[in-house]
Structure prediction request, 88 residues.
Amino acid sequence: MGATKGGKDWTPEYVVSIDHGRCIGCGRCFKVCGRSVLELVEKPFDGDDEFGDDMGNKVMSVKDADDCIGCGACARTCTKKCYTHAPA
Prediction:
């Protein structure tokens, strides 16, 4: 547990996973993460790609969860609510 600058208690919650079913690969979370925690990868194909062949083929993935500092910027910027976070 830590504290904010103002002295309030704060418990960092670290990225655990990203829901590939919700992620659209927009990259907003990647842009706000300054720790190289995320990477854009090929979307796992389950046989029912609603976007066809031209869209929806990339999603964000956790590249290095150990580098996450628990700031939550990725989840706050994600419009699709793809992120799962948990305390250490």
The two ends are 9 Å apart (CA to CA).
